[in-house]
Amino acid sequence: QITLKESGPTLVKPTQTLTLTCTFSGFSLSTSGVGVGWIRQPPGKALEWLALIYWDDDKRYSPSLKSRLTITKDTSKNQVVLTMTNMDPVDTATYYCAHVGYGCADYWGQGTLVTVSS
Amino acid sequence: EIVLTQSPGTLSLSPGERATLSCRASQSVSSSYLAWYQQKPGQAPRLLIYGASSRATGIPDRFSGSGSGTDFTLTISRLEPEDFAVYYCQQGLFTFGPGTKVDIK
To answer: Cβ of B45 and A52 within 8 Å?
Structure first.
């Protein structure tokens, strides 16, 4: 059974760096073809992909946010970490991590709401 | 950059009716990487369809996907009460559509 869970701060101040951790079980990020991605959703708005990391450490980023994002993995801990710099109120959103297979997100975490406010 | 357009924005139907949702890409895309998701309020999205037409694990067969090139369709053959939700298409790894809300008429 594949499960994922996001953790991190619920409130960050403008200009701060956000660090989110995705802790997963039921699969290994050392298995060929497997990836873990981050997707966010501002309140009442659509989904937006942020970043993705594959089993071979290949990393992909949203072109519009690439300069602010870093994604890393710790295979031994079954964790993927996303950092986003220079947070702004428009970055207020629910942040999801997801298992990626067949080019899509087939298992999702419950999401974590991050509010950016001073 | 590929842009996905979904129509209609809102679809008002009654239980038992057929729902047809459209996803159009700004340029031809690979069917292998076209997916559909369902999202209910307060919940994470759920994968329904991948590879344009393959149902994900546990998805009822009233959900079907079709299309190629720039035009893709998600069809719900007979709406059940639990199907009223927002539906997103996705192409490749970094492009979601804006969503179609299916609500109760």
So the answer is: no
